[in-house]
Amino acid sequence: MFDIAEELKKLPNSPGVYIMHDADDAIIYVGKAVNLHNRVRSYFRKIVGRGPQIDKMVEQIARFEYIVTDSELEALVLENNLIKEHSPKYNTMLKDDKTYPYIKVTVGEEYPRILFSREMKKDRSKYFGPYTSAAAVKDTIELMNKLYQLRTCNRKLPRDIGLERPCLNYHIKQCLAPCQEYIGKEEYRERVEQALDFLNGNYKPILKDLEQKMQNASEQLAFEDAIRYRDLYNSVKSVAQKQKITDSDGEDKDIIALAKDESDAVVQVFFVRDGKLIGREHFYMTHVAGYDNAQILLDFVKQFYAGTPYIPKELMLQEQIEDIEILEKWLGTRKGSRVYLRVPRKGYKEKLVELAAQNAQLVLSQDKERIKREEGRTIGAVREIAALLELESIHRMEAFDISNISGFVNVGSMVVYEKGKPKRSDYRKFKIQSVSGPDDYACMKEVLTRRFVHGMEERAELDRKEIDKEFGSFTKFPDLLLMDGGKGQVNIALQVLEELHIDIPVCGMVKDDNHRTRGLYYQNVEIPIDTHSEGFKLITRIQDEAHRFAIEYHRSLRSKAQVKSVLDDIPGVGPTRRKALMRHFKSIEEIKNAETARLCEVPEIPEHIAEQIYDFFHKAVD
After folding, report:
1. Per-residue pLDDT tens for 192-205?
2. What residues contact 358, with CB distance under 8 A and at least 6 apart?
3. For 382-560, which CATH class?
4. Fold of domain 566-621
Protein backbone atom coordinates (compact mmCIF):
# COMPACT_ATOMS: atom_id res chain seq x y z
CA MET A 1 0.00 0.00 0.00
CA PHE A 2 1.25 3.49 -0.88
CA ASP A 3 2.02 5.51 2.27
CA ILE A 4 1.87 9.16 1.22
CA ALA A 5 3.49 10.47 4.42
CA GLU A 6 6.46 8.12 4.03
CA GLU A 7 6.86 8.76 0.31
CA LEU A 8 6.88 12.54 0.87
CA LYS A 9 10.00 12.12 3.00
CA LYS A 10 11.80 10.43 0.09
CA LEU A 11 11.28 13.27 -2.40
CA PRO A 12 14.60 14.64 -3.78
CA ASN A 13 15.57 18.29 -3.84
CA SER A 14 15.84 18.17 -7.64
CA PRO A 15 13.96 19.53 -10.63
CA GLY A 16 11.51 17.15 -12.25
CA VAL A 17 7.92 16.20 -13.01
CA TYR A 18 5.38 14.78 -10.55
CA ILE A 19 2.36 12.66 -11.52
CA MET A 20 -0.72 12.30 -9.31
CA HIS A 21 -2.88 9.12 -9.48
CA ASP A 22 -6.36 8.45 -8.08
CA ALA A 23 -7.69 5.23 -6.49
CA ASP A 24 -8.28 3.72 -9.96
CA ASP A 25 -4.65 4.56 -10.85
CA ALA A 26 -5.79 7.11 -13.42
CA ILE A 27 -3.48 10.12 -13.87
CA ILE A 28 -5.37 13.16 -12.59
CA TYR A 29 -2.63 15.80 -12.57
CA VAL A 30 0.86 16.38 -13.99
CA GLY A 31 3.11 19.23 -12.85
CA LYS A 32 6.73 20.34 -12.99
CA ALA A 33 8.89 21.59 -10.16
CA VAL A 34 12.22 23.32 -9.66
CA ASN A 35 12.39 21.38 -6.38
CA LEU A 36 10.27 18.22 -6.22
CA HIS A 37 10.62 17.94 -2.42
CA ASN A 38 9.14 21.37 -1.76
CA ARG A 39 6.54 21.40 -4.52
CA VAL A 40 4.90 18.01 -3.97
CA ARG A 41 4.85 18.39 -0.16
CA SER A 42 3.01 21.71 -0.55
CA TYR A 43 -0.09 19.89 -1.83
CA PHE A 44 -0.48 17.98 1.42
CA ARG A 45 -0.15 20.91 3.81
CA LYS A 46 -3.24 22.57 5.20
CA ILE A 47 -3.18 25.72 3.14
CA VAL A 48 -6.10 28.13 3.18
CA GLY A 49 -7.15 29.84 -0.03
CA ARG A 50 -5.53 27.64 -2.67
CA GLY A 51 -8.93 27.01 -4.25
CA PRO A 52 -11.64 24.32 -4.17
CA GLN A 53 -10.42 22.76 -7.43
CA ILE A 54 -6.98 21.95 -6.04
CA ASP A 55 -8.46 20.83 -2.70
CA LYS A 56 -10.77 18.47 -4.58
CA MET A 57 -7.84 17.10 -6.59
CA VAL A 58 -5.74 16.51 -3.46
CA GLU A 59 -8.60 14.58 -1.85
CA GLN A 60 -8.49 12.12 -4.77
CA ILE A 61 -4.72 11.47 -4.73
CA ALA A 62 -4.06 7.81 -3.86
CA ARG A 63 -0.41 7.84 -4.89
CA PHE A 64 2.12 9.92 -6.75
CA GLU A 65 5.25 9.28 -8.75
CA TYR A 66 7.97 11.56 -10.05
CA ILE A 67 10.66 11.76 -12.70
CA VAL A 68 13.90 13.61 -11.91
CA THR A 69 15.38 15.76 -14.68
CA ASP A 70 18.71 17.54 -15.08
CA SER A 71 17.13 20.97 -15.43
CA GLU A 72 13.89 22.89 -15.14
CA LEU A 73 13.87 23.19 -18.94
CA GLU A 74 13.85 19.40 -19.31
CA ALA A 75 11.05 19.24 -16.73
CA LEU A 76 9.01 21.72 -18.75
CA VAL A 77 9.34 19.65 -21.94
CA LEU A 78 8.53 16.39 -20.13
CA GLU A 79 5.51 17.97 -18.40
CA ASN A 80 4.11 19.09 -21.76
CA ASN A 81 4.56 15.64 -23.30
CA LEU A 82 2.86 13.87 -20.38
CA ILE A 83 -0.09 16.29 -20.32
CA LYS A 84 -0.60 15.86 -24.05
CA GLU A 85 -0.44 12.06 -23.76
CA HIS A 86 -2.67 11.58 -20.71
CA SER A 87 -5.02 14.66 -20.68
CA PRO A 88 -5.24 14.68 -16.84
CA LYS A 89 -8.55 15.66 -15.29
CA TYR A 90 -7.22 18.58 -13.22
CA ASN A 91 -4.77 20.13 -15.67
CA THR A 92 -6.09 23.06 -17.65
CA MET A 93 -6.23 21.73 -21.19
CA LEU A 94 -6.01 23.36 -24.59
CA LYS A 95 -9.15 21.98 -26.23
CA ASP A 96 -8.33 22.89 -29.84
CA ASP A 97 -5.81 20.86 -31.86
CA LYS A 98 -5.43 22.94 -34.98
CA THR A 99 -2.73 22.77 -37.60
CA TYR A 100 -2.25 26.02 -39.48
CA PRO A 101 -1.65 26.34 -43.20
CA TYR A 102 1.48 27.82 -44.76
CA ILE A 103 2.45 28.93 -48.24
CA LYS A 104 5.57 27.00 -49.21
CA VAL A 105 7.95 28.14 -51.96
CA THR A 106 10.35 25.35 -52.90
CA VAL A 107 13.34 27.61 -53.54
CA GLY A 108 15.67 24.62 -53.11
CA GLU A 109 14.46 23.23 -56.46
CA GLU A 110 15.88 24.40 -59.79
CA TYR A 111 12.35 25.27 -60.91
CA PRO A 112 10.56 26.25 -57.66
CA ARG A 113 6.83 25.78 -56.97
CA ILE A 114 4.30 27.55 -54.72
CA LEU A 115 2.51 24.97 -52.57
CA PHE A 116 0.02 24.61 -49.73
CA SER A 117 1.52 23.04 -46.60
CA ARG A 118 0.26 22.07 -43.13
CA GLU A 119 3.72 21.76 -41.63
CA MET A 120 6.96 23.69 -41.64
CA LYS A 121 10.04 21.56 -42.34
CA LYS A 122 13.75 22.25 -42.59
CA ASP A 123 13.92 21.45 -46.31
CA ARG A 124 15.50 24.57 -47.90
CA SER A 125 12.02 25.89 -48.80
CA LYS A 126 10.69 29.30 -47.77
CA TYR A 127 7.50 29.33 -45.67
CA PHE A 128 5.00 32.14 -45.27
CA GLY A 129 2.46 32.08 -42.45
CA PRO A 130 1.00 30.52 -40.49
CA TYR A 131 -2.38 31.71 -41.74
CA THR A 132 -5.69 31.13 -39.98
CA SER A 133 -7.74 30.36 -43.10
CA ALA A 134 -6.92 27.44 -45.38
CA ALA A 135 -9.36 28.80 -47.96
CA ALA A 136 -7.53 32.15 -48.03
CA VAL A 137 -4.19 30.38 -48.52
CA LYS A 138 -5.56 28.34 -51.43
CA ASP A 139 -7.07 31.47 -53.00
CA THR A 140 -3.73 33.28 -52.67
CA ILE A 141 -1.83 30.37 -54.28
CA GLU A 142 -4.36 30.26 -57.12
CA LEU A 143 -3.95 34.01 -57.66
CA MET A 144 -0.16 33.71 -57.71
CA ASN A 145 -0.29 30.90 -60.25
CA LYS A 146 -2.31 33.19 -62.50
CA LEU A 147 0.08 36.08 -61.92
CA TYR A 148 3.45 34.37 -62.21
CA GLN A 149 2.56 31.16 -64.09
CA LEU A 150 4.89 28.91 -62.10
CA ARG A 151 4.63 25.15 -62.31
CA THR A 152 2.63 23.10 -59.77
CA CYS A 153 3.45 19.59 -61.05
CA ASN A 154 5.63 16.93 -59.40
CA ARG A 155 7.91 16.44 -62.43
CA LYS A 156 11.61 16.28 -61.66
CA LEU A 157 13.14 19.19 -63.55
CA PRO A 158 15.46 19.52 -65.39
CA ARG A 159 15.67 15.68 -65.54
CA ASP A 160 12.18 15.27 -67.09
CA ILE A 161 12.33 18.18 -69.56
CA GLY A 162 10.77 17.18 -72.88
CA LEU A 163 9.62 13.71 -71.75
CA GLU A 164 5.89 14.52 -71.67
CA ARG A 165 3.56 17.02 -73.26
CA PRO A 166 2.72 20.19 -71.29
CA CYS A 167 -0.25 19.80 -68.96
CA LEU A 168 -3.58 21.64 -68.89
CA ASN A 169 -2.14 24.50 -66.81
CA TYR A 170 -0.02 25.56 -69.79
CA HIS A 171 -3.05 25.71 -72.07
CA ILE A 172 -5.10 27.79 -69.59
CA LYS A 173 -2.15 30.19 -69.14
CA GLN A 174 -1.34 29.24 -65.54
CA CYS A 175 2.07 27.72 -66.31
CA LEU A 176 4.82 28.67 -68.77
CA ALA A 177 5.84 25.01 -69.26
CA PRO A 178 9.46 24.88 -68.07
CA CYS A 179 9.03 21.12 -68.66
CA GLN A 180 9.31 21.94 -72.39
CA GLU A 181 11.87 24.74 -71.93
CA TYR A 182 9.30 27.24 -73.21
CA ILE A 183 10.78 29.57 -70.56
CA GLY A 184 14.45 29.85 -69.68
CA LYS A 185 15.78 29.06 -66.22
CA GLU A 186 16.86 32.66 -65.52
CA GLU A 187 13.52 34.14 -66.56
CA TYR A 188 11.72 31.51 -64.45
CA ARG A 189 13.85 32.46 -61.42
CA GLU A 190 12.97 36.13 -61.94
CA ARG A 191 9.30 35.22 -61.67
CA VAL A 192 10.00 33.25 -58.47
CA GLU A 193 11.70 36.33 -56.97
CA GLN A 194 8.69 38.46 -57.93
CA ALA A 195 6.41 35.93 -56.23
CA LEU A 196 8.53 36.03 -53.07
CA ASP A 197 8.37 39.83 -53.17
CA PHE A 198 4.58 39.58 -53.41
CA LEU A 199 4.39 37.22 -50.43
CA ASN A 200 6.51 39.64 -48.42
CA GLY A 201 3.81 42.26 -48.94
CA ASN A 202 5.25 44.32 -51.79
CA TYR A 203 2.24 44.63 -54.11
CA LYS A 204 3.09 47.86 -55.95
CA PRO A 205 5.20 46.38 -58.79
CA ILE A 206 2.60 43.78 -59.80
CA LEU A 207 -0.26 46.31 -59.56
CA LYS A 208 1.65 48.73 -61.80
CA ASP A 209 2.49 45.94 -64.28
CA LEU A 210 -1.11 44.67 -64.47
CA GLU A 211 -2.48 48.17 -64.92
CA GLN A 212 -0.07 48.77 -67.83
CA LYS A 213 -0.93 45.42 -69.46
CA MET A 214 -4.65 46.15 -69.09
CA GLN A 215 -4.28 49.53 -70.83
CA ASN A 216 -2.15 48.07 -73.65
CA ALA A 217 -4.65 45.29 -74.26
CA SER A 218 -7.52 47.79 -74.38
CA GLU A 219 -5.66 49.99 -76.90
CA GLN A 220 -5.04 46.91 -79.10
CA LEU A 221 -8.74 45.96 -78.79
CA ALA A 222 -7.75 42.66 -77.11
CA PHE A 223 -10.70 42.90 -74.75
CA GLU A 224 -10.52 39.33 -73.41
CA ASP A 225 -6.93 39.91 -72.28
CA ALA A 226 -7.90 43.31 -70.86
CA ILE A 227 -10.67 41.70 -68.77
CA ARG A 228 -8.27 39.02 -67.52
CA TYR A 229 -5.71 41.66 -66.44
CA ARG A 230 -8.47 43.73 -64.83
CA ASP A 231 -9.67 40.74 -62.76
CA LEU A 232 -6.11 39.98 -61.67
CA TYR A 233 -5.58 43.63 -60.76
CA ASN A 234 -8.71 43.64 -58.59
CA SER A 235 -7.69 40.37 -56.91
CA VAL A 236 -4.26 41.70 -55.99
CA LYS A 237 -5.78 44.95 -54.72
CA SER A 238 -8.18 42.97 -52.56
CA VAL A 239 -5.33 40.97 -51.02
CA ALA A 240 -3.34 44.15 -50.40
CA GLN A 241 -6.26 45.85 -48.62
CA LYS A 242 -6.77 42.90 -46.27
CA GLN A 243 -3.26 43.34 -44.85
CA LYS A 244 -3.65 45.79 -41.97
CA ILE A 245 -0.50 47.39 -40.62
CA THR A 246 -0.37 46.92 -36.85
CA ASP A 247 3.16 47.87 -35.94
CA SER A 248 5.91 49.84 -37.59
CA ASP A 249 8.77 47.58 -36.42
CA GLY A 250 7.83 44.85 -38.93
CA GLU A 251 8.47 42.06 -36.41
CA ASP A 252 6.63 38.76 -36.01
CA LYS A 253 4.61 38.61 -32.79
CA ASP A 254 1.59 36.90 -31.24
CA ILE A 255 -0.74 38.93 -29.03
CA ILE A 256 -2.39 36.74 -26.38
CA ALA A 257 -5.25 37.51 -23.98
CA LEU A 258 -8.13 35.60 -22.40
CA ALA A 259 -11.59 35.80 -20.87
CA LYS A 260 -12.98 33.26 -18.41
CA ASP A 261 -16.03 32.32 -16.38
CA GLU A 262 -16.62 29.65 -13.74
CA SER A 263 -16.04 26.66 -16.03
CA ASP A 264 -14.41 27.73 -19.30
CA ALA A 265 -11.85 30.12 -20.72
CA VAL A 266 -11.28 31.46 -24.22
CA VAL A 267 -7.80 32.56 -25.28
CA GLN A 268 -7.62 34.95 -28.23
CA VAL A 269 -4.43 35.16 -30.31
CA PHE A 270 -3.68 37.85 -32.90
CA PHE A 271 -1.03 36.71 -35.40
CA VAL A 272 1.23 39.54 -36.59
CA ARG A 273 3.76 38.71 -39.32
CA ASP A 274 6.16 41.27 -40.81
CA GLY A 275 4.23 43.96 -38.95
CA LYS A 276 0.92 42.93 -40.54
CA LEU A 277 -2.06 41.39 -38.79
CA ILE A 278 -2.65 38.27 -40.88
CA GLY A 279 -5.41 36.77 -38.76
CA ARG A 280 -6.69 35.81 -35.36
CA GLU A 281 -7.89 32.65 -33.70
CA HIS A 282 -9.54 31.68 -30.44
CA PHE A 283 -8.89 28.59 -28.33
CA TYR A 284 -10.86 26.95 -25.56
CA MET A 285 -9.23 25.94 -22.28
CA THR A 286 -11.07 23.41 -20.13
CA HIS A 287 -10.72 22.46 -16.42
CA VAL A 288 -10.12 26.11 -15.51
CA ALA A 289 -12.22 26.27 -12.32
CA GLY A 290 -10.07 27.50 -9.44
CA TYR A 291 -7.23 28.77 -11.66
CA ASP A 292 -6.44 32.46 -12.18
CA ASN A 293 -5.73 34.13 -15.52
CA ALA A 294 -1.95 33.94 -15.10
CA GLN A 295 -2.00 30.15 -14.60
CA ILE A 296 -4.30 29.62 -17.58
CA LEU A 297 -2.10 31.82 -19.79
CA LEU A 298 0.98 29.91 -18.63
CA ASP A 299 -0.61 26.55 -19.48
CA PHE A 300 -1.81 27.87 -22.84
CA VAL A 301 1.66 29.12 -23.83
CA LYS A 302 3.25 25.79 -22.88
CA GLN A 303 0.68 23.62 -24.66
CA PHE A 304 0.10 25.74 -27.77
CA TYR A 305 3.74 26.49 -28.59
CA ALA A 306 4.76 22.89 -27.95
CA GLY A 307 2.64 21.96 -30.97
CA THR A 308 2.82 24.87 -33.40
CA PRO A 309 5.62 24.68 -35.99
CA TYR A 310 6.22 28.44 -36.04
CA ILE A 311 7.18 30.58 -33.05
CA PRO A 312 7.36 34.38 -33.49
CA LYS A 313 10.05 36.58 -32.02
CA GLU A 314 7.75 38.07 -29.39
CA LEU A 315 4.71 36.98 -27.35
CA MET A 316 2.74 39.90 -25.91
CA LEU A 317 0.75 38.69 -22.89
CA GLN A 318 -2.25 40.06 -21.04
CA GLU A 319 -0.52 39.71 -17.65
CA GLN A 320 2.63 38.49 -15.98
CA ILE A 321 3.07 34.71 -15.73
CA GLU A 322 5.49 32.47 -13.86
CA ASP A 323 8.58 30.88 -15.35
CA ILE A 324 9.11 33.58 -17.99
CA GLU A 325 12.88 33.05 -18.13
CA ILE A 326 12.62 29.29 -18.54
CA LEU A 327 9.81 29.68 -21.10
CA GLU A 328 11.90 32.14 -23.14
CA LYS A 329 14.78 29.69 -23.07
CA TRP A 330 12.57 26.78 -24.14
CA LEU A 331 10.86 28.76 -26.93
CA GLY A 332 14.22 30.11 -28.10
CA THR A 333 15.58 26.57 -28.32
CA ARG A 334 12.58 25.49 -30.40
CA LYS A 335 12.77 28.55 -32.67
CA GLY A 336 16.55 28.64 -33.00
CA SER A 337 16.78 32.30 -31.97
CA ARG A 338 15.83 34.55 -29.04
CA VAL A 339 12.14 34.78 -28.09
CA TYR A 340 10.73 37.46 -25.75
CA LEU A 341 7.64 37.26 -23.49
CA ARG A 342 6.41 40.72 -22.60
CA VAL A 343 3.45 42.34 -20.84
CA PRO A 344 2.92 45.79 -22.41
CA ARG A 345 1.86 48.45 -19.90
CA LYS A 346 1.18 51.45 -22.11
CA GLY A 347 0.78 52.68 -25.63
CA TYR A 348 -0.31 50.93 -28.78
CA LYS A 349 0.81 47.43 -27.78
CA GLU A 350 -1.25 47.56 -24.59
CA LYS A 351 -4.30 48.55 -26.65
CA LEU A 352 -3.74 45.53 -28.92
CA VAL A 353 -3.72 43.23 -25.89
CA GLU A 354 -6.91 44.90 -24.61
CA LEU A 355 -8.48 44.37 -28.03
CA ALA A 356 -7.56 40.66 -27.92
CA ALA A 357 -9.13 40.41 -24.43
CA GLN A 358 -12.33 42.08 -25.66
CA ASN A 359 -12.51 39.64 -28.55
CA ALA A 360 -12.02 36.71 -26.18
CA GLN A 361 -14.85 37.96 -23.96
CA LEU A 362 -17.08 38.37 -27.02
CA VAL A 363 -16.40 34.80 -28.18
CA LEU A 364 -17.06 33.44 -24.68
CA SER A 365 -20.38 35.27 -24.26
CA GLN A 366 -21.56 34.46 -27.79
CA ASP A 367 -20.64 30.82 -27.32
CA LYS A 368 -22.55 30.63 -24.05
CA GLU A 369 -25.60 32.07 -25.82
CA ARG A 370 -25.18 29.62 -28.68
CA ILE A 371 -24.91 26.69 -26.28
CA LYS A 372 -27.99 27.92 -24.44
CA ARG A 373 -29.96 28.12 -27.70
CA GLU A 374 -28.67 24.72 -28.80
CA GLU A 375 -29.67 23.15 -25.49
CA GLY A 376 -33.14 24.63 -25.94
CA ARG A 377 -33.39 23.00 -29.38
CA THR A 378 -32.09 19.64 -28.16
CA ILE A 379 -32.11 18.79 -24.44
CA GLY A 380 -34.84 21.35 -23.72
CA ALA A 381 -36.99 19.94 -26.54
CA VAL A 382 -36.53 16.39 -25.22
CA ARG A 383 -37.64 17.52 -21.77
CA GLU A 384 -40.77 19.05 -23.32
CA ILE A 385 -41.62 15.75 -25.02
CA ALA A 386 -41.00 13.80 -21.81
CA ALA A 387 -43.26 16.15 -19.85
CA LEU A 388 -45.98 15.93 -22.52
CA LEU A 389 -45.96 12.11 -22.37
CA GLU A 390 -45.48 12.11 -18.57
CA LEU A 391 -42.22 10.14 -18.85
CA GLU A 392 -39.53 10.56 -16.20
CA SER A 393 -36.75 11.16 -18.72
CA ILE A 394 -35.77 10.47 -22.33
CA HIS A 395 -32.19 10.00 -23.50
CA ARG A 396 -32.49 7.98 -26.70
CA MET A 397 -35.27 8.09 -29.28
CA GLU A 398 -35.60 5.92 -32.37
CA ALA A 399 -37.87 6.61 -35.33
CA PHE A 400 -38.79 4.28 -38.19
CA ASP A 401 -40.19 4.81 -41.67
CA ILE A 402 -41.08 2.63 -44.69
CA SER A 403 -40.50 3.60 -48.31
CA ASN A 404 -41.76 1.94 -51.51
CA ILE A 405 -43.03 2.92 -54.95
CA SER A 406 -45.79 0.65 -56.23
CA GLY A 407 -44.32 -2.16 -54.18
CA PHE A 408 -40.87 -1.92 -55.82
CA VAL A 409 -38.21 -2.85 -53.25
CA ASN A 410 -39.76 -2.12 -49.85
CA VAL A 411 -37.21 -0.60 -47.49
CA GLY A 412 -37.21 0.62 -43.91
CA SER A 413 -35.15 3.22 -42.07
CA MET A 414 -34.15 3.59 -38.45
CA VAL A 415 -32.83 6.94 -37.22
CA VAL A 416 -31.52 7.59 -33.72
CA TYR A 417 -31.52 10.77 -31.64
CA GLU A 418 -29.66 11.05 -28.33
CA LYS A 419 -30.09 14.13 -26.13
CA GLY A 420 -32.04 15.68 -28.99
CA LYS A 421 -29.23 15.32 -31.55
CA PRO A 422 -28.97 12.82 -34.43
CA LYS A 423 -26.57 9.95 -33.78
CA ARG A 424 -25.86 9.03 -37.40
CA SER A 425 -23.44 6.24 -36.56
CA ASP A 426 -26.44 4.31 -35.17
CA TYR A 427 -28.71 4.83 -38.21
CA ARG A 428 -29.67 1.57 -39.93
CA LYS A 429 -31.30 0.57 -43.25
CA PHE A 430 -33.50 -2.49 -43.84
CA LYS A 431 -34.30 -4.17 -47.14
CA ILE A 432 -37.66 -5.86 -46.57
CA GLN A 433 -37.42 -9.63 -47.06
CA SER A 434 -40.84 -11.07 -46.20
CA VAL A 435 -43.23 -8.61 -47.87
CA SER A 436 -43.94 -8.10 -51.55
CA GLY A 437 -46.19 -5.27 -52.57
CA PRO A 438 -47.08 -2.01 -50.79
CA ASP A 439 -48.01 -3.18 -47.27
CA ASP A 440 -46.53 -0.64 -44.85
CA TYR A 441 -47.85 -2.34 -41.69
CA ALA A 442 -46.33 -5.72 -42.59
CA CYS A 443 -43.06 -4.01 -43.57
CA MET A 444 -42.95 -2.10 -40.29
CA LYS A 445 -43.56 -5.30 -38.34
CA GLU A 446 -40.60 -6.98 -40.07
CA VAL A 447 -38.30 -3.99 -39.49
CA LEU A 448 -39.12 -3.68 -35.79
CA THR A 449 -38.88 -7.43 -35.23
CA ARG A 450 -35.48 -7.62 -36.90
CA ARG A 451 -34.25 -4.55 -35.00
CA PHE A 452 -35.18 -5.82 -31.52
CA VAL A 453 -34.40 -9.51 -32.08
CA HIS A 454 -30.95 -8.48 -33.26
CA GLY A 455 -30.57 -6.28 -30.18
CA MET A 456 -31.64 -9.08 -27.84
CA GLU A 457 -29.17 -11.48 -29.45
CA GLU A 458 -26.35 -8.96 -29.06
CA ARG A 459 -27.30 -8.38 -25.42
CA ALA A 460 -27.30 -12.11 -24.74
CA GLU A 461 -23.72 -12.35 -25.99
CA LEU A 462 -22.49 -9.63 -23.66
CA ASP A 463 -21.64 -9.96 -20.02
CA ARG A 464 -24.21 -7.86 -18.16
CA LYS A 465 -21.50 -5.85 -16.39
CA GLU A 466 -20.02 -4.80 -19.70
CA ILE A 467 -23.22 -3.70 -21.46
CA ASP A 468 -22.70 0.01 -20.75
CA LYS A 469 -19.26 -0.15 -22.37
CA GLU A 470 -20.32 -2.31 -25.34
CA PHE A 471 -23.56 -0.63 -26.43
CA GLY A 472 -24.02 -0.59 -30.19
CA SER A 473 -26.82 0.64 -32.42
CA PHE A 474 -28.97 -2.46 -31.77
CA THR A 475 -27.80 -3.45 -28.29
CA LYS A 476 -28.91 -0.18 -26.75
CA PHE A 477 -32.71 0.07 -26.59
CA PRO A 478 -34.50 3.43 -26.87
CA ASP A 479 -36.40 5.23 -24.13
CA LEU A 480 -39.07 6.15 -26.68
CA LEU A 481 -40.13 4.74 -30.06
CA LEU A 482 -41.46 7.29 -32.54
CA MET A 483 -43.65 5.90 -35.34
CA ASP A 484 -44.25 7.86 -38.54
CA GLY A 485 -48.02 7.46 -38.28
CA GLY A 486 -50.91 7.27 -35.86
CA LYS A 487 -52.84 4.46 -34.21
CA GLY A 488 -52.10 1.76 -36.81
CA GLN A 489 -48.32 2.14 -36.72
CA VAL A 490 -48.31 2.39 -32.92
CA ASN A 491 -50.32 -0.83 -32.56
CA ILE A 492 -47.89 -2.68 -34.86
CA ALA A 493 -44.97 -1.55 -32.69
CA LEU A 494 -46.75 -2.49 -29.45
CA GLN A 495 -47.57 -5.92 -30.88
CA VAL A 496 -43.90 -6.58 -31.76
CA LEU A 497 -42.70 -5.39 -28.34
CA GLU A 498 -45.30 -7.49 -26.54
CA GLU A 499 -44.33 -10.63 -28.48
CA LEU A 500 -40.68 -10.03 -27.56
CA HIS A 501 -41.52 -9.12 -23.92
CA ILE A 502 -39.93 -5.68 -24.20
CA ASP A 503 -41.36 -2.66 -22.41
CA ILE A 504 -40.70 0.57 -24.33
CA PRO A 505 -43.08 3.56 -24.67
CA VAL A 506 -44.39 3.97 -28.23
CA CYS A 507 -45.61 7.27 -29.60
CA GLY A 508 -47.17 7.96 -33.01
CA MET A 509 -46.78 11.19 -34.96
CA VAL A 510 -50.32 12.02 -36.10
CA LYS A 511 -50.64 14.00 -39.33
CA ASP A 512 -53.41 16.25 -40.65
CA ASP A 513 -54.89 16.20 -44.17
CA ASN A 514 -51.87 18.12 -45.47
CA HIS A 515 -49.47 15.47 -44.11
CA ARG A 516 -48.24 17.81 -41.36
CA THR A 517 -47.84 16.59 -37.78
CA ARG A 518 -50.68 17.88 -35.62
CA GLY A 519 -50.17 15.86 -32.44
CA LEU A 520 -48.89 12.70 -30.77
CA TYR A 521 -50.76 9.42 -30.34
CA TYR A 522 -49.81 7.85 -27.01
CA GLN A 523 -51.58 5.24 -24.84
CA ASN A 524 -54.69 5.30 -27.06
CA VAL A 525 -55.03 9.08 -26.79
CA GLU A 526 -54.18 11.80 -29.29
CA ILE A 527 -52.26 14.50 -27.43
CA PRO A 528 -52.25 17.98 -28.97
CA ILE A 529 -48.88 19.72 -29.14
CA ASP A 530 -47.96 23.39 -29.46
CA THR A 531 -46.71 23.72 -33.02
CA HIS A 532 -44.44 26.63 -31.98
CA SER A 533 -42.69 24.68 -29.22
CA GLU A 534 -39.15 23.30 -29.44
CA GLY A 535 -40.53 19.83 -28.69
CA PHE A 536 -42.75 19.97 -31.77
CA LYS A 537 -39.88 21.22 -33.92
CA LEU A 538 -37.67 18.35 -32.73
CA ILE A 539 -40.38 15.76 -33.52
CA THR A 540 -40.77 17.26 -36.98
CA ARG A 541 -36.99 17.08 -37.55
CA ILE A 542 -36.91 13.44 -36.47
CA GLN A 543 -39.88 12.62 -38.71
CA ASP A 544 -38.28 14.34 -41.71
CA GLU A 545 -34.95 12.64 -41.05
CA ALA A 546 -36.51 9.14 -40.90
CA HIS A 547 -38.38 9.86 -44.14
CA ARG A 548 -35.27 11.29 -45.85
CA PHE A 549 -33.11 8.33 -44.84
CA ALA A 550 -35.67 5.80 -46.13
CA ILE A 551 -36.18 7.66 -49.43
CA GLU A 552 -32.41 7.98 -49.95
CA TYR A 553 -31.94 4.23 -49.49
CA HIS A 554 -34.86 3.43 -51.78
CA ARG A 555 -33.48 5.76 -54.45
CA SER A 556 -30.04 4.09 -54.30
CA LEU A 557 -31.61 0.64 -54.80
CA ARG A 558 -33.69 1.89 -57.72
CA SER A 559 -30.58 3.37 -59.33
CA LYS A 560 -28.74 0.05 -59.03
CA ALA A 561 -31.68 -1.78 -60.58
CA GLN A 562 -31.89 0.65 -63.49
CA VAL A 563 -28.28 0.11 -64.58
CA LYS A 564 -29.12 -3.52 -65.38
CA SER A 565 -28.39 -4.28 -69.05
CA VAL A 566 -30.56 -6.31 -71.44
CA LEU A 567 -27.40 -8.38 -72.05
CA ASP A 568 -27.68 -9.69 -68.48
CA ASP A 569 -30.78 -11.66 -69.55
CA ILE A 570 -28.83 -13.70 -72.14
CA PRO A 571 -27.67 -17.10 -70.83
CA GLY A 572 -23.88 -17.33 -70.70
CA VAL A 573 -23.32 -13.55 -70.78
CA GLY A 574 -21.94 -12.27 -67.47
CA PRO A 575 -20.23 -8.99 -66.51
CA THR A 576 -16.94 -9.83 -68.32
CA ARG A 577 -18.56 -10.78 -71.65
CA ARG A 578 -21.03 -7.89 -71.39
CA LYS A 579 -18.15 -5.39 -71.02
CA ALA A 580 -16.24 -7.02 -73.89
CA LEU A 581 -19.29 -6.75 -76.18
CA MET A 582 -19.86 -3.10 -75.32
CA ARG A 583 -16.18 -2.26 -75.92
CA HIS A 584 -16.30 -3.89 -79.36
CA PHE A 585 -19.72 -2.79 -80.62
CA LYS A 586 -20.27 0.50 -78.75
CA SER A 587 -24.07 0.09 -78.58
CA ILE A 588 -26.81 -2.50 -77.93
CA GLU A 589 -28.22 -1.76 -81.38
CA GLU A 590 -24.97 -2.84 -83.09
CA ILE A 591 -24.92 -6.08 -81.08
CA LYS A 592 -28.55 -6.72 -81.97
CA ASN A 593 -27.83 -6.33 -85.72
CA ALA A 594 -24.59 -8.36 -85.71
CA GLU A 595 -24.39 -11.80 -87.36
CA THR A 596 -22.95 -14.75 -85.42
CA ALA A 597 -19.60 -14.55 -87.25
CA ARG A 598 -19.19 -10.91 -86.31
CA LEU A 599 -20.07 -11.62 -82.68
CA CYS A 600 -17.28 -14.23 -82.66
CA GLU A 601 -14.77 -11.47 -83.48
CA VAL A 602 -14.91 -10.59 -79.77
CA PRO A 603 -12.20 -12.78 -78.15
CA GLU A 604 -14.29 -13.43 -75.04
CA ILE A 605 -17.30 -14.71 -77.06
CA PRO A 606 -17.10 -18.39 -78.19
CA GLU A 607 -19.29 -19.61 -81.07
CA HIS A 608 -22.02 -21.21 -78.94
CA ILE A 609 -22.41 -17.98 -76.88
CA ALA A 610 -22.53 -15.94 -80.11
CA GLU A 611 -25.38 -18.18 -81.32
CA GLN A 612 -27.23 -17.63 -78.02
CA ILE A 613 -26.85 -13.85 -78.33
CA TYR A 614 -28.07 -13.91 -81.96
CA ASP A 615 -31.03 -16.17 -81.09
CA PHE A 616 -31.96 -14.00 -78.07
CA PHE A 617 -32.42 -10.84 -80.14
CA HIS A 618 -33.91 -12.38 -83.26
CA LYS A 619 -36.34 -14.66 -81.48
CA ALA A 620 -37.42 -11.70 -79.39
CA VAL A 621 -38.09 -9.81 -82.64
CA ASP A 622 -39.94 -12.69 -84.24
Report:
1. 998 888 887 777 88
2. none
3. alpha beta
4. DNA polymerase; domain 1 (1.10.150)
